[in-house]
Design brief:
By secondary structure, this protein is of the alpha/beta class. The protein has helices spanning 3-23, 31-38, 43-47, 49-62, 76-90, 113-123, 142-153, 160-166, 169-175, 191-200, 228-237, and strands at 107-108, 127-132, 135-141, 182-185, 206-210, 219-224.
Length: 238
């Protein structure tokens, strides 16, 4: 068996074993079925689904079924693609190490809504974590504020000035929570897991990364939908 053939088979076995282990698929599931099923679970597999199925066909064509010997050599481009996918499946890059900015702006929870709005405008972000005594209260989202104004305050004829001056950021987030719009994750979360989370939840606005994935830690990074194109490019270039 030639060098290309050895590398090709090794990459195939890494992907096959890795996906079965990660997602607990049994040995009687064919590789093609494995790929089709994992495409809904894993963004990397979803991106390369057709390539993986084609590579499985190639593997069956160049390996003798009974003796498991190579009867033809795959070209280097195919081998390198297979190895790249195997690397992405088994040792995917973490999101935190690939974020362009790891400085996360936060807002203290005691600020009035008016002060919070002014601070959010100064920072220029659409999603900003709000902390009280180093504990996450929630994530301020400017679109959520506009939504509350339009659906809860203005229709009732309430004074917007009174509302924003007398309610604190903490009160706002507890009264109008945004918990279904953000996720907490530990620093080991991978780019693949980030992309899958955003794919599975269209309402997700951001993922807040802390050391242990809990609200009791200060943020190490934040991923928003605006970061997804760059993270996809990381996978392409990995």
């Amino acid at each position: 068996m030639g060098t290309n053939g050895t590398r090709f088979v090794n990459a195939y076995n890494v992907i096959d074993h890795g996906l079965r282990t990660i997602y607990n698929f049994k040995a009687n599931v064919t590789f093609t079925d494995l790929i089709r099923r994992c495409a809904s679970l894993n963004t990397v597999v979803r991106i390369y689904e057709d390539d993986l199925v084609d590579l499985a066909r190639l593997r069956n064509a160049i390996i003798h079924n009974k003796t498991e010997t190579l009867v033809a050599e795959p070209n280097i481009e195919v081998v390198e693609l297979f190895e790249k996918i195997a690397k992405l499946v088994m040792t995917p890059p973490t999101a935190i190490e690939r974020l362009t900015s790891k400085d996360v702006a936060t807002i203290p929870s005691h600020l009035s809504l008016k002060e919070l709005i002014i601070e959010a405008a100064r920072l220029g972000y659409g999603s900003i974590p709000v902390y009280k005594n180093n504990v996450l209260i929630g994530v301020w989202r400017k679109y959520r504020f506009v939504e509350v104004m339009g659906s809860h305050i203005i229709p009732r004829g309430e004074s917007i000035d009174d509302f924003i001056e007398n309610m604190t950021g903490e009160d706002f987030l507890r009264t109008f929570p945004t918990t279904n719009r953000y996720l907490l994750a530990g620093q080991k979360i991978t780019i693949e897991e980030v992309l899958t989370a955003f794919t599975n939840n269209r309402k997700l606005a951001c993922i807040l990364i802390t050391e242990d994935g809990t609200a009791n830690c200060r943020p190490l990074g934040i991923v928003t939908r605006g970061d997804l194109i760059n993270l996809m490019q990381v996978l392409e270039d990995y």
